[in-house]
């Protein structure tokens, strides 16, 4: 996560979007549980449009639903898509799997209010980068598990997932950083993003628990289509992921 990514969406871009609904509370258990909706002109209760949901990255503890990474996808509103950016509890406040539960609660809220905003609840894709990619993949692969925190009458399943340089396997990520020369091999401490996410040093955690955060554990023939993108020069997230 570089400095540019941590900057907010430029005000001129926000001002250029006439149909936006910001800081909507999707669950009441935490003040952070809010989302922003950006709509194309044609979205209406009579003309429901597909929706792309962004789950921001930030090393599991940083980032914001209105950070610069949104500019990668905000343009979809010019192609007839609704765009939603979700905030969730950071891992230093809520360890795994609570942030995933937040993201699923957001999806259920969107489906519960889809008619108000002209969103088609049967055409929803989720995307995220880095740690947000991990969340996006877990939302997609664990499908409709967990009904906590609001709107239990709706499901959290999605029809597609785009994960950009996602953390996939915390059990191997430190070893892969050493292999790639981006880590000196010092023991995993609570300073490592994945350790904060999981609540302890990875070396001290049960392997089976760590693997629960690995989206690959949930792959079945029934999951939605998924696109992964990764770069060989990525230092925080090794390409082996």
As a whole number of angstroms, the C-alpha radius of gyration is 18 Å
Strand order of the largest sheet: 1-2-4-3-5-6-7
Described by the principal axes of the CA atoms, the overall outline is globular
Major sheet characteristics: 7 strands, mixed
The ordered H/E elements are HHEEEEHHEHEHHHE
Put simply, the count of helices is 8
Q: How many distinct beta strands?
A: 7
Strand content: 15-25%
- Distance N terminus to C terminus? 17 Å
Kindly report the average pLDDT value: 91
Helix-strand layout with pairing:
Elements: H1 3-6, H2 11-15, E1 20-25, E2 34-38, E3 49-55, E4 82-86, H3 98-112, H4 114-117, E5 119-129, H5 131-141, E6 160-164, H6 170-179, H7 193-198, H8 207-211, E7 226-229
Parallel strand pairs: 3-4, 3-5, 5-6, 6-7
Antiparallel strand pairs: 1-2, 2-4
């Amino acid at each position: 996560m570089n400095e540019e990514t941590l900057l907010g969406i430029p005000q001129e871009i926000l001002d250029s979007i006439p149909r936006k609904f910001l800081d909507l509370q999707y669950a009441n258990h935490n003040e952070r549980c809010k989302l922003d909706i950006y709509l194309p002109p044609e979205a209406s209760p009579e003309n429901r449009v597909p929706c792309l949901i962004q789950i921001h990255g930030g090393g599991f503890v940083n980032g914001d639903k209105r950070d610069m990474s949104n500019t990668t996808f905000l343009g979809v509103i010019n192609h007839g898509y609704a765009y939603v950016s979700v905030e969730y509890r950071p891992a230093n406040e809520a360890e795994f799997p609570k942030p995933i539960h937040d993201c699923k609660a957001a999806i259920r809220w969107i489906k519960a209010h889809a008619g108000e905003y002209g969103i088609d609840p049967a055409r929803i894709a989720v995307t995220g980068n880095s740690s947000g990619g991990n969340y996006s993949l877990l939302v997609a692969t664990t499908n409709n598990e967990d009904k906590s925190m609001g709107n239990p009458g709706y499901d959290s399943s999605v029809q597609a997932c785009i994960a950009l340089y996602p953390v996939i396997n915390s059990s191997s990520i430190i070893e892969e950083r050493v292999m790639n020369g981006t880590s000196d091999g010092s023991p995993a401490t609570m300073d490592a993003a994945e350790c904060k996410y999981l609540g302890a040093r990875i070396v001290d955690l049960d392997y089976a628990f760590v693997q629960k955060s690995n989206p690959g554990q949930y792959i079945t023939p029934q999951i939605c289509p998924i696109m992964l993108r990764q770069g060989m020069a990525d230092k925080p997230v090794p390409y082996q992921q």
